[in-house]
Amino acid sequence: MKKETLALVLNFIFFGGLFIFFKNTIGSLMPMSYVPLIALSVLFTGIVSPKFLVNEGKLFMKIPFRKKPIQF
After folding, report:
1. 3-class state of residue 53 by DSSP
2. Which contacts (CB < 8 Å, 24+ apart) does range 1-5 have?
3. C-alpha span between 69 and 2 (Å, rounded)
4. Any residues with CB less than 8 A from the CB of 62 and at least 6 apart, and which?
5. Is the whole-model pTM more than 0.85?
6. FRET label pair with 26: which of 11, 19, 20, 34, CA 20 to 30 Å apart?
């Protein structure tokens, strides 16, 4: 598998997993309608989820609230 494809798949997996986690957690703690629940979950997930990227053939993971990405 190419590094770019791996980075895309990892981004989808981490975003999806964290989205489900935030949706279930927020939905169980605060009863609200579906659209605000989804919007709030997407907002939190976008802030907290790690970003995977490829630079010069190397895979990096950018962790939120850290300046330097981690190389794999």
Report:
1. strand
2. 3/54, 3/57, 3/58, 3/59, 4/54
3. 20
4. 50, 51, 52, 53, 69, 70
5. yes
6. 11
Sign of CA dihedral 9, 10, 13, 14: negative
The pair of structure tokens assigned to 15 is 């975003």
Q: What is the pLDDT of residues 7-59, one digit of tens each?
A: 999 999 999 999 999 999 999 999 899 999 999 999 999 999 999 999 999 99
SS3 30: coil
pLDDT of residue 28: 94
The Cα–Cα gap between 66 and 54 comes to 18
